[in-house]
Amino acid sequence: MHEWAIAMSVVSSVEKWSTEKNVRVGKVILSVPSLSMLEVEILREAFDVIKKDSKIADAKLEIRLRDQEFSCRVCGNKFTLGDIKPQLEQVLKDYGEENPLHIVPALITAFAKCPKCGSNDFDVDTSIKVEAIEL
Amino acid sequence: MNPILELAKERFKGKKVFAVMSAKGGVGKSTIASLLALNSSEKRGTALIDLDVYGNSVLKLFGIKKLHEVSKEGIEPFKIGNLSIYSVGGLVGDHYVVLTGKQEGGVIESLLGFTNLKDDLVFIDTPPGMGEELLTLKRILKPEVALVTLPSRLSLKTVEQMLIYLLDTGIKPKVIIGNMAFLETKNGLIYPFGNLEPVLKLGEEYGIRVEFLPIDPSIEDFIGRIQDYSGCIKVTLKRIFVS
Fold first, then answer.
1. At the topology level of CATH, where does A2-134 sit?
2. How far apart are CA B154 and CA B157, in angstroms?
3. Structural domain boundaries of chain A?
4. Residues of chain A with pLDDT under 70
5. Prediction ipTM score
6. CB contact under 8 A, A109 and B98
7. In this complex, do A17 and B1 lie within 8 Å of one another by their Cβ atoms?
8. How much is the pTM?
9. DSSP per position, A31-84
């Protein structure tokens, strides 16, 4: 549901940037972490609705789902989202769709462990970022 | 470009934000932040944001065990009268929170960014120390600060370091609160940490007002229902913040 708030943040940030640079935005490339389980279609729909009242009304949105690489700081193991799938499914089961990782992906270390050594101490990029803007 | 950071900045634009801070843990920040917010909410809509992502003491103080609802606008608050409360504890429930430094920043950014903030007056309960949470908070907003210390020499030394840091970064706390300064008994006042002179001296040295709060053992009976507490700590805070 908070996809709308994300869309609002993207429109607002890009609009501010385009005003500062005095340029017309053609496309926004948004990179989102797969583990956030964001509904891409809702995000796109929200972007299309919100942009209408902004200075980037013609901009298109490309969403790139990012499959993060996890790096354990204890044993050095590199792992992927697929390796911790059962743990993420448990979160979904415990909390439902509006689960903590959906809203705040940075909470991942609280809910997942390195599949090799069981440590919560791992690095992963959970940020939502505007990767590029095409004019 | 980090849209969530920008969203967080946008949410707090034009808001009056009061952060209750201390470099030391266990000095009573959450209780003070909660009572300040409750006092304020008697007159106007007020928000209370619990940034202590590990402790979530605010929810424990209010006895809130539910999870936040999430709408199109973001995280919806728990309502206690005119008070709107937001906390990471309202996302994770009873689950522990363990975070790397980088993730800490992401959690604070997301919480502040997705908070569906409607009130113009916001109190923030901050975690102890001077870690990522403090840096992230400062990236997003410039709060008014109430700096809390115990009158103990150890607490004062630690809090002075935070005070110097805040001054270095252009934030002059409005008030230094010497918490748990005295206990009123039938035989007069007892000062568990000795005389209060060092706290007064700290305020004098940096030109900051100093106020003291009493110890009220009865507040223990209100953990889990702090909204029902009307004892001397709340009354004293009301006087301090009116003046």
1. hypothetical protein PF0899 fold (3.30.2320)
2. 5
3. 2-134
4. 1
5. 0.89
6. yes
7. yes
8. 0.93
9. EEEGGG---HHHHHHHHHHHHTTSTTTT-EEEEEEE-PEEEETTT--EEEGGGG
